[in-house]
Design goal:
- The structure is a homodimer.
- Chain A has 11 helices and 39 strands.
- The first copy, chain A, is α+β, with helices and mostly antiparallel strands.
- Chain A has 2 domains: 284 residues, Beta-galactosidase, Chain A, domain 5 (Distorted Sandwich); 295 residues, TIM Barrel (Alpha-Beta Barrel).
- In chain A, strands 1, 8, 9, 10, 11, 14, 15, 17, 18, 22 and 23 form an 11-stranded antiparallel β-sheet that branches. Chain A has an 8-stranded antiparallel β-sheet with strand order 2-3-4-5-13-20-19-16, with no helix packed on it.
- The longest helix of chain A is centred in the middle third of the chain and has 17 residues.
- At the A-B interface, α7 and α8 of A face α7 and α8 of B.
- Chains A, B: One of its GO terms (molecular function) is hydrolase activity.
- Chains A, B: InterPro entries: Aldolase_TIM (IPR013785), GH (IPR017853), GH-type_carb-bd (IPR014718), GH97_C (IPR029483), GH97_catalytic (IPR019563), GH97_N (IPR029486), Glycosyl_hydrolase_97 (IPR052720).
- Chains A, B: Monomer.
- Chains A, B: This is Glycosyl-hydrolase 97 C-terminal, oligomerisation.
- Chains A, B: It comes from Marivirga sericea.
């Protein structure tokens, strides 16, 4: 299935400059002229700066890399050539937020030679109308083939003490609440920001992860991230908080090296997106555009998924993944037919059938089942190498009978591969595990990497693990399997090339609501940070926000109203969405649940109606497979009023608007379940104003209606 | 193919002692009473000592382990139980030095409990008539399940400044010449002993590897090694040279830990073999006896192998493994059909066919071909991850045609899997690589691990790699493949359990003769050290000892006479033996070559006629499949006379003895090719005296003859 794809594109090559080596500076503008890049050598050091509408947004910043043994690719260069070009192509993603995507940039490639070593390095800049992407390239050459990177030294010199929404730089987890602060305050807030995690490795008092969202004093939004992280180590940013300069900080391997390279090769792209409008950050397709076109010839087997799952009851502690209460097990030696079940194992035939029935009844594609396989008794935090085999079900999970039952109901089960970070073990079993999926009618897998990586010393975001995650995705494609990888490296747009990588978690998701709670404004930040690189399997849809109702020993509160949970299906983009709560709870709120049933997971158009990081986001999206639209608003811890226009609707048409909003007096803490559902008749001239409570929001479905069908409904 | 085997055994359990906890000491004797073990707790520390014929050979030495986080399993114990037993069983190896092996020992198991932690640990001692084996065991228990070993602290307190034949303790290589010195001299000789290697990690000025061979002042031979290295890290010995106490030193992982354990589990066995007769050390089967019985149900596909190979001409530099002279390649991207061949690629169709013809003509089973596959241009010392795919031949190696050609000649090709230390890459390809072998009629593979291990930070002898080597052997069995692993951990008797592990190199072999030379006495030491744990693929049979004859740029001399090369087929035990030189050279010495053709690789009886480590070894072995005997003598750098009796021959029978010995004036350096072949008529009363030159030796085939067949021959 993996063959190079022929793209339709118009490529215009304009050789504008061929400069002799004594010329030190190059300029590049974005197509619309708003951005200006200047590249130069400052005493032999490659340097760039970026202006937006003639104002500096990146001050002169140096580029380059440090190699092992005190070598470098950061100084003593001369320019031997440079080329510019323009590229303008519209391409069609297999699934996404829009039907088509325009990839339109001006490009500058500077070819450098290091004077004493004769090493060659190119830097390729692409200036889009929303910002800059650039990467290092190492052509085939005589004086550089195998090299080991000690640290990348890409600078991003900020022009002021911007406000930032950040999580601590960490080699192993992103599962932190965001802190919003000025850059100068990061150092003082770092200790508090690093909350406990079973696998974590914060590395600096001023280190942060990407995507990093910022806002200048003048109100310019600036976002830093990377695209196309392949064959390299994930980048963090380390802040010099005297000068407000970020420098790239890569994730090390077990012996402290950052990446092993063989020329010809390149680094990932470093991206800078900027706009006066926060919504432009969200709507930028730069990350995707910087990735390679789709690698598979046949993509017909890749389809977005709506699912429910035997999961939340284990997350809350109501049930267990494990079948028995044994202190430890050895796969193949422990005889589960002889152990006493603990009576709390959720992944059993009866329950799974009930979930299959519910999925079939309400139109869900798949049922995730966690805890179906031997090994859960001692999987967590033991650094256990042979922890799962991904093949052997517990005695109460009849994989064949359930396959047939699901099939008879038009539903699939979703596979679960928790690796416990034991990467070699997963790879040893991977072919058989994927074949097992094929044999039992599974076509999608949620994988997990909870706990420190094995081989010990490696990190979740190092080159070693990054290589593994892509290996798992590519091998999955050989079996027609789609992947949703949790605890893996945060995405960087690889879904363009490998569209069976449907989603990742790779941030603090809904499960943490049951582990003490997420910040109320968490989902008003994630699209600006985590989701710049790709979809997130946030697993929303929690209606019973008082976790003690499920597990009296767990006093966590999900910090949300029900209306906001519905909104998340629109605001937390993903082609794979879960209705995460228990069927018995949904059955109590079927009117609200209707929105989750109606909302699609593949879109032809996406708009941002309102957005301020940390405060609120309102998205409007058009279903790819109909003329229906959906709106969602997520609100922070303040009471706010949202006022939106429906001018995106098709003129001359009428729509049934079903508005699911916070009820009067609703509040995530004191009254989360108060919601109101109202139906209206709307068209492109309509507008609406909705009060959102702390932790609240609203969701609106807009279904195209026949003329006259809606008379009698209130008109907006 | 892997099922537990039912053994025939007689097991006598005698509970001799059930001691209350205040009794601190236990005794155990070997069946013949020569050895006496004393175990005790010295202020809560487990301690043992070993006497031989009432003389201490191991002074009181402590036992135990250090765990991470300052925990320990080495002190503060009490004895809660002890049991003794006797075991006597004779079993049949699939192949070996003898037809049957007797496993006869007295056993003591002490059960210990650590007073403050309540952790349980057993120590199992088995006293054989040739020495002691013991290991730590960790039963299933409440207070110890997952634990990480920081260092094992097993002591072996020597009773004097013994003479030792040693190589430097090293986490990554054993490819050193041996040094013979007193223990007190190790420190001063270490620097010289550590010669360069592409992958090495010596760790101490007084660290040495096992098996360690020693000789006390009084002439007692003492050998220290380990048996059944499974799921653990390889042991070295670190010498406290003030007190002459060795302490175990395990191989670390990337973060400095030694082993990750899950109870119930156990360590490998630590072995102490001792005798006044050097030959008893060589003939001991303790290592095998301490391993588990064979794991496979069907072993009919496992057969010893005699082979030749397209190899030595690359080792000498006459030809190349690589097809082209490219600075670097990328598998799947480099198009070998378009590159210019370097004209020195040995693994080509014409040459391989010639080797197949030679093998068929002279009765060899297999032809090894190295350099058959893409990737050799840049495989060495680049820390290259995706270095080989084990599947894709070079353009001049037609794998299908050669399979068919070999088959038509009744010969098999031997596969070669050089991994370049890139373990994950090998495992990713392993199933396909083994299937490729099956599809192309290969049933044996020489594997290699040249260069630092990838994942970086791991070592060749750490728990991680030890796990991998066994994984490769067990998976090979699924495909009916036999394994000969070079640069892997030195063997510890696993061939009993997994008899498709035919051999390892895992020491300085014949190839080093072309890299500058081995010590002249090297092969008089290896059987006492490297081969205590298992066979060695030493690849002897070099007749052209002046390497410059093959490659004018390589002035190395193989430090041997031709006669000694023949002897090595008897003295360097292996079920897999190579005639390593080039066919064109053998064609010049077909009379000498006849011995190599005649010598078998599977034996029913083995005797040591003469032996002194570092000086000489003379073995006599009986062919398993006939009544023929073979004798071999390897000699050091001194002129010596060997005098042996043929009293091992069957009484009343006559044998044709063909004696291949050093010619007059032969010398490894000045006259290596001088040899004499004489035929005699011998019987069990015969004897012979042969002069051996520096680097010389002799080989004798003794073929049962019919009465009267040999008249006319000189009688011995």
């Amino acid at each position: 299935m993996q063959k190079p794809m022929k793209t339709m594109m118009r490529y215009i090559l304009i050789i504008l400059l061929f400069l002799p080596s004594f010329v030190m500076a190059q300029d590049l503008n974005s197509p619309n002229g708003n951005f200006e890049l200047k590249f130069s050598l400052e005493e032999g050091k490659p340097t760039y700066q970026l202006n937006y509408k003639q104002i500096a947004i990146i001050k002169p910043s140096s580029l380059g890399l440090g190699l092992v043994e005190e070598e470098n690719l950061s100084e003593n260069f001369e320019i031997i050539a440079s080329e510019t070009a323009t590229f303008d192509e519209t391409w069609t993603p297999v699934w996404g937020e829009t039907s088509t995507i325009r990839n339109y940039y001006n490009e500058l490639v500077v070819s450098l030679k290091q004077i004493e070593t004769n090493r060659l390095m190119n830097i390729r800049f692409r200036l889009f109308n929303e910002g800059l992407g650039f990467r290092y390239e190492f052509p085939q050459q005589e004086h550089l083939t195998y090299f080991t990177i000690k640290e990348e030294k890409t600078q991003f010199a900020m022009t002021g003490d911007h406000k930032a929404w950040w999580i601590a730089g960490d080699y192993d987890t992103q599962e932190y609440d965001y802190t919003s602060s000025k850059l100068s305050e990061i150092r003082g807030l770092m200790e508090k920001a690093v909350t406990p995690n079973v696998s974590q490795a914060p590395f600096s008092e001023t280190g942060v992860q990407t995507a990093l969202m910022m806002k200048s004093e003048k109100g310019l939004y600036i976002n830093l991230h990377e695209a196309a992280l392949v064959g390299y180590s994930a980048m963090h940013l380390e802040l010099d908080d005297e000068n407000m300069v970020f420098t790239s900080h890569l994730t090390p391997d077990a012996i402290g090296n950052k990446a092993y390279m063989q020329a010809p090769t390149q680094t990932p792209w470093r991206t800078i997106i900027a706009s006066e409008k926060a919504g432009d950050i969200l709507l930028s397709n730069m990350t995707l555009n910087l990735n390679e076109p789709v690698a598979y010839e046949d993509v017909s087997w890749i389809k977005p998924v709506k699912y429910i799952g035997v999961w939340w009851e284990m997350i809350t502690g109501k049930s267990s993944w494990a079948y028995a209460d044994l202190p430890s097990v050895k796969l193949g030696e422990t005889d589960y037919t002889k152990v006493e079940p603990n009576g709390k194992h959720a992944a059993n035939n009866t329950k799974v059938k009930r979930y299959i029935d519910f999925a079939a009844e309400h139109g869900f594609d798949q049922v995730l089942v966690e805890g179906w396989n031997e090994g859960w008794e001692d999987w967590f935090d033991k650094s256990k190498d042979y922890v799962f085999d991904f093949l052997t079900p517990y005695p109460d999970f009849d994989v064949e009978a359930l396959r047939d039952y699901a099939k008879s109901k038009g539903v699939k089960l979703m596979m679960h591969h928790e690796t416990s970070g034991s990467i070699r073990n997963y790879e040893r079993h991977m072919d058989k595990a994927y074949q097992f999926m094929v044999d039992h009618n599974y076509n999608s897998v949620k994988s997990g990497y909870v706990g420190d990586i094995i081989p010990r010393g490696e990190h979740h975001y190092g080159q070693w693990a990054v290589n593994h995650y892509l290996y798992a995705v590519k091998k999955a494609a050989e079996y027609g399997v789609m992947v949703n990888a949790h605890e893996a490296v945060r995405p960087t747009g690889l879904r363009r090339t490998y569209p069976n990588l449907l989603a990742n978690e790779s941030a603090r998701g809904t499960e943490y609501e049951a582990f003490g709670g997420n910040n109320v404004d968490h989902t008003t930040i994630l699209p600006f940070t985590r989701q710049i690189g790709g979809p997130m399997d946030y697993t929303p849809g929690i209606f019973e926000t008082d976790v003690s109702q499920y597990n009296p020993n767990n006093g966590s509160r999900v910090r949300t109203t029900i209306a906001r949970q519905l909104a998340l299906y629109v605001t937390m983009y993903s082609p794979l969405q879960m209705a995460a709560d228990l069927p018995e709870t949904y059955n109590k709120y079927l009117d609200a649940f209707q929105f989750i049933k109606d909302v699609p997971v593949d879109w032809s158009e996406t708009l941002v109606l309102e957005a301020e990081p940390g405060d609120f986001i309102t998205y409007a999206r058009k279903d790819k497979n109909s003329n229906n639209w959906f709106v969602g608003r997520t609100n922070d811890e303040e009471e706010r009023t949202s006022a939106i226009y429906f001018d995106f609707l098709e003129k001359g048409k009428e729509y049934l608007a079903i508005v699911y909003k916070d009820g009067k007096g609703a509040h995530w803490e004191t009254n989360p379940k108060a919601y109101e559902i109202n139906k209206y008749r709307v068209n492109s001239k309509s507008k609406i104003s909705i009060d959102c409570v702390p932790g609240g929001g609203y969701a609106i479905s807009l279904m195209e209606a026949e003329k006259g069908e809606l008379k009698g409904l209130k008109k907006l």
